[in-house]
Specification:
12 helices; 3-stranded antiparallel sheet; single chain; 253 residues; globular; mainly alpha; 54% helix
């Protein structure tokens, strides 16, 4: 999805024609796109995280071009996001901090989710694995003799992502076994709620939205799926969180 957006704005120009000064122009265009989309949204977005991801992906693409000796140097090697926008984002986050649920709160919310989503949440609590990796899990690839294997799909070859093995515990084994029993006809953990032909988890997002509405009706604070990972990462020291979340660098954590 991000590549399609970048291709739209980068056009079909050869990577050799891109210059360091073009990075700032690309960043500006991407923020303008967010501002244009905000006109159609009820909830406004500052777009900082989206643009940061797209610029990071662009940088990775040029690193690949450099490794393949298509270009001599990465024109984005010294690029940094606009500090004023970062300050605005931090100020907005400080004013409206996200609700990161406690494990106690998550447990209280579980009965309002369907069985498969309860198992998904419990598995995420045990591992902190990203949504993209959880929805791609399959019996053949991820279940190993020594534990649950996660290869880390965030960005293929991304420097901040590494493969992990979560050693089997009775609790982890029990959850994975229950998941395997849900859809015996499919090797995928969550075949009905994975990615569609366009690469989007629309069925999962719809189910999560329905779950949030049920929590609101029950008088419970709803929470975003990604904040379960934040809760898992916030337990213990930074070093422990780094290992648990599969980061190669503590700065990322």
């Amino acid at each position: 999805q991000a590549l399609a957006i970048l291709r739209h704005y980068l056009g079909k120009e050869d990577v050799k024609t891109f210059r360091p000064g073009d990075a700032g122009q690309l960043e500006k265009i991407l923020f303008e796109r967010i501002a244009e989309n905000n006109k159609k949204r009820e909830k406004q977005s500052n777009g900082f995280r989206t643009v940061k991801y797209q610029m990071s992906l662009t940088k990775d693409l040029f690193n690949f071009a450099k490794a393949e000796q298509i270009i001599e140097a990465n024109p984005l090697s010294d690029f940094q996001m606009d500090k004023r926008r970062r300050a605005q984002r931090n100020k907005a986050n400080a004013k409206n901090p996200p609700f990161i649920p406690s494990f106690k709160h998550i447990k209280k919310c579980l009965p309002y989710a369907p069985k498969w989503l309860q198992l998904y949440i419990r598995l995420k609590e045990m591992t902190g694995v990203r949504q993209t990796d959880l929805l791609r899990m399959s019996v053949q690839i991820n279940i190993r003799d020594d534990g649950l294997f996660v290869d880390g799909h965030k960005v293929l070859g991304h420097r901040a992502v590494k493969a992990q093995i979560f050693a089997w515990t009775p609790e982890l084994r029990a959850v994975v076994t229950e998941i395997d029993q849900l859809w015996k006809w499919s090797p995928l953990f969550f075949p009905k709620h994975g990615f569609n032909a366009k690469g989007k988890p629309e069925a999962f997002n719809s189910a999560w939205s329905h779950f949030r509405k049920k929590l609101k009706r029950a008088g419970l604070q709803p929470f975003a799926e990604r904040y379960i990972r934040n809760r898992v990462g916030s337990e213990g020291s930074v070093g422990e969180a780094r290992e648990r979340l599969g980061h190669t660098d503590e700065a990322t954590t």
